[in-house]
Specification:
It is a single chain. The chain is α+β, with helices and mostly antiparallel strands. It contains four helices and five strands; from the N terminus they run αβββββααα. The longest helix is centred in the middle third of the chain and has 27 residues. It is elongated, with a radius of gyration of 19 Å. It starts with 5 loop residues before the first helix and ends with a helix.
Length: 160
């Protein structure tokens, strides 16, 4: 079911970049008990970045088609909920960044998702002395401000 704000968000998007989010197990980093860390691979226009989900899954119970764990129990349910939450959060960050930038990279999206300055480069130390780095909340506030101005302009032109 389309969201209430879908049309409003589509009107503000500056680019037509496509996002793909895939979940996978990093079996090379499996623990001694066989649990492998779960990662999200974020791809935008052929470039990708990996984001740790913060969960581990037994590869024997990983459904590669559905990208979910099939194991029974509360831990597995929690993992599947975390996957859905991470996917939704990444998509939300993507939409907000699309409203802010002509083009975005997977690294910009990863930084935004992790709460880092969007323009932070890989292996770059964060300079905490910088004033007002662009965070998701700041980007969202700026989006709302611009959207309200746009709406006010439309109403003024239409005589409402």
């Amino acid at each position: 079911m389309p969201g209430v704000f879908d049309n409003l968000i589509d009107a503000r998007m500056k680019s037509n970049q496509k996002l793909s989010v895939m979940f996978w197990l990093k079996k090379s980093k499996a623990t001694k008990d066989g649990q492998a860390p779960l990662y999200a691979r974020v791809t935008i226009d052929g470039e990708d970045e990996e984001i740790s989900v913060g969960k581990k899954v037994n590869p024997q119970f990983w459904d590669t088609k559905e990208k979910r764990t099939t194991e029974a129990g509360s831990e597995a349910k929690e993992t599947n909920l975390k996957i859905a939450q991470v996917e939704n959060d990444i998509k939300r960050h993507f939409i907000l960044l699309q409203s802010q930038y002509e083009e975005m990279t997977p690294l910009m999206l990863k930084n935004s998702y992790l709460g880092l300055p969007v323009d932070k480069q890989k292996d770059q130390d964060i300079d905490n002395s910088k004033e007002n780095p662009l965070t998701l909340l700041i980007a969202y506030d700026q989006f709302i401000e611009r959207f309200e101005k746009r709406l006010n302009g439309k109403f003024a032109r239409n005589g409402h």
